[in-house]
Amino acid sequence: xxxxxxxxxxxxxxxQEELADAVGVTRQTITSVETGKYTxxxxxxxxxxxxxxxxxxxxxxxxxxxxx
Length: 68
Known about the structure:
The chain is mainly alpha-helical. The chain has helices at about 5-10, 15-25, 25-35, 40-50, 55-60, and strands at about 1-5, 60.
């Protein structure tokens, strides 16, 4: 899944470590979510979106997901 996390971090001058600390995960988790190796749980997606003051849809790109 594509995300806008890296761009948002850079815009806010945050390191992966700083974002990870703010949302309660490891830097490796943020790296994995940014690179698409790991899909964030709903809870983590919510925390990240909330941190940036955005909706989940503004941070995560769901366009490639299959419809149910």
